[in-house]
Design goal:
CATH architecture of the largest domain in chain A: Up-down Bundle
CATH superfamily of the largest domain in chain A: MFS general substrate transporter like domains
Largest sheet of chain A: 4 strands, antiparallel
Oligomer: heterodimer
Shape of chain B: elongated
Number of helices of chain A: 22
Order of helices and strands of chain B: HH
Helix content of chain A: 55-70%
Radius of gyration of chain B: 15 Å
Number of strands of chain B: 0
Strand content of chain A: 5-15%
Strand order of the largest sheet of chain A: 1-2-3-4
Number of strands of chain A: 4
Number of helices of chain B: 2
Number of domains of chain B: 1
Helix content of chain B: over 70%
Shape of chain A: globular
Structural class of chain B: mainly alpha
CATH class of the largest domain in chain A: Mainly Alpha
Radius of gyration of chain A: 25 Å
Distance between the termini of chain A: 16 Å
CATH topology of the largest domain in chain A: Growth Hormone, Chain: A
Amino acid sequence: MNSNLSSEQVDKKKLRKVIAASSVGTLIEWYDFYIFGSLSVVIATKFFPSDNPTAAFLSTLATFAAGFVVRPFGALFFGRLGDLIGRKYTFMVTLLIMGFSTFAIGLIPGYETIGFIAPILVLILRLLQGLALGGEYGGAATYVAEHSEPGKRGYRTAWIQTTASLGLFISLLVILATKKSMSEEAFANFGWRIPFLISIVMVGISYFIRKNMDESPMFEKAKQEGKIVANPLKESFGKKLNFKFVLLALFGATMGQGVVWYTGQFYALSFLQKVANIEFEQSNYIIAASLAGGTGFFIFFGWLSDKIGRKAVMLTGMLLAICTYRPIYQAMYETADVSLKTEVAGSKVINTDYYMIPKSVDLKKTMKTEFSYTDGSTLTLEETSLTTIFPGKNPKKPEVKRIVHVGSSSFWYLILLVFIQVLYVTMVYGPIAAFLVEMFPTAIRYTSMSLPYHIGNGIFGGLLPAVATYLAAKASTANEVAIAAGQAITYSKPYLEGLWYPIIIGGVCFVIGLLYVNGKDKEIND
Amino acid sequence: MNAIRQIFGIVWILLGLAAGYFLVFEQSLKLFEKGGMDNIVPAIIYTFILAPLLTGGMCIFGVYALQNEYKK
């Protein structure tokens, strides 16, 4: 295939194969990466000391963040390789590393079996996942863009853009299907490992599809003409001519895109589960349904960016997101807030179970109190307490868990609210691969586009759940302190405080994008 | 428009410095002092990842903007 591609010259059948092979591999990598995040609560109990659930949860988030923080290093390492030896071989390697790491996580014995070796192994494998993902995306996006004809690059690369959401969607489906197929106890014991283990089959299939693909025509041409640079890192980041665009790509596009992406998909799930207390299964259905409804819009906005420009589409999505996040999350909170619902008279049901813990003198008491509401919602207060059979010994403080199951109308309303956020994600994310590819020349494209993408997404976006959870927790603590001191509370809506992170980062990115980003598409033939 | 882009360079430099100061001195140091896993994790993230990236990156970006590197 000639490198100076025109619409007539492109072999459509071959192009479809290129897009399919690239997208399937990238989709699997995202699936591998997200099952860890989606199962973070279960993983926390298996691999981290469970004395303090918050510490365990934060440890998982830290591990999750570690997976994101190393992504830029993967971008540098594999980006350099991709610009030196080719796109195809590089993203074959990243696929295999990802598959191996995911499969291995599913095999590690828990903390109770092998002690601290367990979380250390999990951390190492998570870091390998991050490295692999850092190298994968840039390769796939560059590969598809370099095969595409001018005027359709946004549309073609948008297929790669769907893979991140689809990967998350499939990870949620696999987890839900696994949970459905067994008891809660069996899932907690071994079932959670299944989504990790089946990854090896998917990676194997993808490897054989990719193996038969050709190298990118533009890279081949650059190689034949001797235009491959000896040190892509130095060329990308050591020369002002290129580095200024790396910074612009980061601060004027990917930074904002990253926070919009993670707010719409990950923080929404975390908020539903931890703040709105919606039960695990139902909250996952809400996210999965929103993703299913929204994924097609990646293609639409990629296509639209070919017509009206990448900048207009991306910045509109970013502006809408930062202006509407607070009302959307307020509505999500109120929809699940049972204090705003009408309780069905006489609906209160109490169930109590006692369980003697083997090889101990402890007795576990679980008391479930269920309330029903007129809109079909239920609230379950699950109080678990441990007492000893020896008299005189102080019982431990009971733990109370609130679990809300929303009724049908609230369920669909929550899907709509998350869907709106997914729509913003598709606006900022759909055109971004084409936007980044068009900023840099062939010789340094893989390296130069991968780094801002993974810093924007991996660091600014990936840290969002941890930073936002921390900001919201800090606001709640400040209120508790004020109440204890008999003062007025500082934050009227502490649960919305976490949103300041995506709003501020998104706002700065919007202004930079508006002022400095060139709205006109560029030619990628050097 | 190019003049506005140039002038905003100062804003990005100041914003980068302010972000670094806020993250390190107003947040991280206090969190390190408090101790405990749930304080130290965000403190490490702020000090060693977000602060250098925001401060370093934004300041260089601001300098380039001041030098009119992004003129159209």
